Amino acid sequence: MDRRTTFKKFLGVEAAATVGNRRQEDALPVGGGLTPYNGTWNYATAAHLLRRAMFGPTHSQILDAVKDGMDKTLDKLFSPVPLPSDPVLYSDNPIDPDTKKGESWVKAPLNPSVQGNVAFKENSLFAWLMEQIYNEGVSVTEKMTLFWHNHFVVSEIFDPRMSFDYIQLLRANCLKNFKELTKQITVDKAMLYYLNGNQNTNLAPNENYARELMELFTLGKGELAGPGDYTTFTEQDVMAVAKALTGWTVPVDRRNTTYIALPVFNPNLHDASTKTLSHRFGNRVIVNAGANEYKNVVDVIFEKREAATFICRKLYRYFIYYKVSSAIETDIVDGLADTLIANNFEIAPVVRELLSSSHFYTDESLGALIRPPYEFIFNTLKAMKFNSSQVTALEDTYNLYLYLYRSTNGLQQVYFDVPSVAGWTPYYQEPSFHEIWVNSVTLPLRAGLTTGLASKTIRVRNISQKVFGLELAQYVSDFANPDDATKLINDTVAHLLPKPIYQNQLDYLKTKLLGNLSEAQWKTIWDTYAADPTNTQKKAAVENRLKSLFTNLLTMPEYYLS
Amino acid sequence: MKRRKFLQVSSLASVPMLINGIPVSAVARNSFLDFVSPDNDKILVLIQLTGGNDGLNMVLPLDQYTNLDKVRNKILIKESLAIKLRPDLGLHPSMTGLKSLYDSSKLKLIQSVGYPNQNRSHFRSTDIWTSGSSAEQVETTGWLGRYYMQNHNSYPTGYPNMDNPDPLAITVGSLVSQTCQGSVANFSLAIVDPATLAPLNEPAFPTTIPTTNYGNELKYLIDTLKQTNDYTDVIKDAYDAAGGAVAATGNRLLDQLNIVAQLIKGGMKTKVYVVSIGTFDTHANQCDPDDHEIGTHADLLKQLSDAIAGFQTAIDQSGNSKRVLGMTFSEFGRRIKANDSTGTDHGSAAPMFLFGSCVNPGILGNNPSISANVSNDEGVAMQYDFRSIYASILIDWFEVTPAIVSQLLFKEFQKLPVIEGCSPTSVKDYDRDFSLDFETYPNPAQEYSKISFETKDEFVRISVYNSIGSEIQILYSGRISSGKHEMNLNLKDLESGNYYVRIASESAQKTKALIKL
After folding, report:
1. Residues B352, B58: Cα–Cα separation, whole Å
2. Which of A25, A441, A445, A548 to mutate to test the interface with B (most CBs of B within 10 A)?
C-alpha cells in the first residue's frame, strides 16, 4: 500500500477529504438469495450479466440487453447454438495426402509420413478454439465449455482428433445433463488416455480415473473421517470403482493412421466380479454389467447429494465469487443443488437461476471477480474492435487465432494446457483462488498485451506486412458523444470497468486523453476526423490521443475485475 | 518505486509510530517476536517434485532387492547399476551429481518420510505438505507462511521497507508457492526471469476502497502492482550485481536454480526460494519397458541430480556455502508394486534430500522393508514424519525456538540431527546412533504379537499402520518411564497382510514391518 495513504489514514484525514468525491452510482439493489432479481435494469446490470456470461460484450450488445430486459437477455444467452463447423487444414505446407487445404481433418487419417502432421492439426484445433470464443454471440456456450474443460480436464493432446471429439462433447453438452455428460466423459477416448482408463484392466486396475471421478468430477473430497475415509467416499470405493471401469481401451495411437470413432470395450480385460462399495454408499454392490457397468457406477454416485452440491459450489465460484460463506452455502449452493436434483441434473436451469438471482446483482458479486486470462484478453479484443477483419485468407485467419492462443501462455490459462487434473489452480486453490491469476509475473504480461493492442503494434507470426490492435477511433464512435472528452471517458469507463471510479481517476484519464489539448481542441480534432474518417492523418490525430487514454485505462487495476 | 523513495517514506512514517519509545509496529506484532532471530541470514531453497516421486526407484534398498524384483520387476533397475552409497543402499544410476555431493559430505538422505494417514490425492497431499498440517486438519496457510507471520504480521502493507528491502521469499515460476501462504497474503514473490523485469505503469488509484468483495480484490490488485514495482528495482540490482543471467543449460530446474544462485550472490536477503520440477506422476511409461535405466523417471532424476550439483557448485563459488540449505519434497511416494502400464500409482512415504555445506551428511533412517507379497495398494511405510524435518530446519537453520516451532507446526515433533554445523565432516550413518530399537515377536503373527523396546523417560507414541499408510491402532501415547517395556499387540480383528509398527519418541522414529498371517 502507498505509504502516504497509510499515513493519512493514521491521521484520520482521509475520509473527510474524499466525501462527495464519489461518482453517483447507478442505483444498484441490495438483497440476496435465489429469488429472481426484479430491481432496476440498466446499463450497469445488463453489462454485469453479459460480462459474466460471455467473454466481452460490446457496447451495442449491452444496449440491446438493456432494451430487452433481463429475461429476454437470458433467453438469448441460453438459446442453443448449433455446433460450429469443424476445424480445417489451413495451409498447404505440409501437404497431407488425405486432406486438402480448407477441408476438415477431424475424421481423416493421421498420416505419419507427413512431417509435423500432429502439430499442424493441433495448431488448427487451438486456433479454431479461439475462433469460437472470439465469434461467440450473446450466448453462455463458450463460458460453459471452458467451465467443463476446467472441470473434466484433459490436458495433453494425444491425437488431435480425439481432443476435438472431447471438446465437442463438452460444447454439445455444456448446458445439458451433468449426469449424462459424466457418463459420456467416462468412456471418452481422450479422457481414457489422460487418466489412464485405457490401461485399467482386470489384471492390473489403474485407479487414476476412478479416484478423480469421485474426488474432482462429482462428489468432492470431504473431511478425513477414518483411515482412507474421505466422508464422501473411501479408498475402498476408489478400488471398487476402478474395477467396475476396467476393460475400456482406445485402439489407436499416434502411429495408427485410421480414425476410430469410439473406444472399445474388451470383456476379457473387464473385472467381472461383484464390487462392493463402502458404507459411504450404504455398502452398495455393483454387479457385473460389462460395457454398461460405467453407467451404473455414475448412477450410484449421482444418488449422493454431494454430486449436486459440489458442482453447484463450483459454478458459484466460476460465475460469482470465490468466497463461499456458510450463509452462501445454505442460501445459494443448497438451493441450486435442489434445482439441479429437481431437474434430474439438467445444468441450464441452475446456471440460469444463478445469473437471474437477486444475489447475482448484489455487491457480493458486482465487480468482485478477477478476470481470468481468457476473459481478460477476449474482453479487450471483442469489446474494443480488434482489427481482425484485415485478414480474410484462411491461412492468415488461422495464424491470427493461433497468435491469440499463444498470447495467454504466460498468463497461465491455455486450452489443453491445464496444469493438473484439478484444473487451473486459481479455480480451486484455497485461500487465494482467483487472486493467483495476478502476481508479479502475470501483471507485466497483462499490461504488455493491452498496451500492444491499444498501440496497434502487434505483429503476428506468418502474417507479414500487417500490424494488429484495437481500432480505437471506431470503438469510441459507437458511443453517443465521442467529441465530448468528459462524456467519452464516462461512457467508456461504464463499458469497460465493472464499477464507477473516483473523480481523481476520471481526471487522470482526462489528462491522458487530452495531453496538451484543451477539451475544445479535442472536439475539433474529433469532428475533423468524424467528417472524413478515411483520412489517415486525421485518424492518426485522434488515435494518438485515444492510445494514450486506453493504454492507461487498460492498466488500471479496475480493468482486471469483472 | 525507487529504493531511495521508500527508504525516505519509511523513515518518515516511523516517526509518529512510537509508544514509550517502542515502535508501534513491534507492539502490534506477535509477542513471539523476541524468539524469532531477526539477524539470522540463512537461506532455504525448496525443490518441489510435483506429481508424487517414486522414491523406491530413486533410492534403492539393495538389501530388499530380491523382494523388489518380485513386485516391481517391470520397472526395477539392475542391482549392479545402482550407484552405491552403502552396500545395502543405492541411488538411481542417473544421479551421479548427488553421488558427488554425498562424497563431499554435502548430502543428507532421510528415508521414508511421510505422515500418518497418508492421503493419496495429489491436491490434498500437496496441501498437507505445503501447509505442514496433519492429514486430518485442513489448513490454508503454509508452514513457511506461518513462520513469516511471526515477524511480518502486517505484510504486504508497508513492504518493502528499510528493514526488509528484499522480497521475503521468491518462487521461481509463474505462480507463488503455497508453502509461503499467510492468512492475508502470500509471502513469496513470483519471478520468471529477473533480466526482463521492468517497472509497471501506476495509474491513478481510488481515493478510498469500499469494504465490499470488489474492494477486497481491488486492494489486492493495487498492492500487487505497487509491490511488483518496489521489488523489481531490488531484484534487478541484485541480479546485475551478480553478473546477470547465466546461459540456459537445457535443464529447466538448473536454470531456475541458477537464477536463485545469482540472486543470492547479488546479496538479496530473501530467506526462502521455491523451485519446482515435474511431473513425477508416472502412472504409465515410467521407464523404457526394455531398458529400465532410461525413460521419464530417469530423465527427471538426472535433471534433479544435475541441477542440485550445479547449484551447489555456484553457491560454493560465490562464497555462500554456509548460508544455503536445500530440501527436496514431493506430495507422496508411489506404490511398491508396479502397475501394468510400466508405471506406478500413488503411494505413501518416500525419501527426502537435504543438501548444502551445513547438513549433517549421510543417511538417516532404515531401509524400508519390502515383503515378497505386497498388496496392490501397498505404499512404503513412513519412518519419519515430514514435520520433524520442518521442525529441524526451523530450529537449527532459522533459529526459531522449539516452543514456537511446535506452535507453527501445531504440535511438537522430534528434531532430527540433520543440520549440524557447517564444517565438513566424514560421512556418518546415523541409524546406529539411535538408542531406540524394538522387536516384534512373533512375526509373522497370527492373533497376537508382542513388542519389546527400551526408552528414556519421554513421550512416545506407538501405533500400527496398515499397508496404505493409515494409523489404525494406537497402542500407547503418552509419557513413559525409562527402561525396558513390553506390550501386547492384538491382531485378531485385522485382515491378513502387511502392517507396520511405528514408535515415535522425542528422540527417535522407527518403523518395522509386521505380517499378519
Report:
1. 10
2. A441
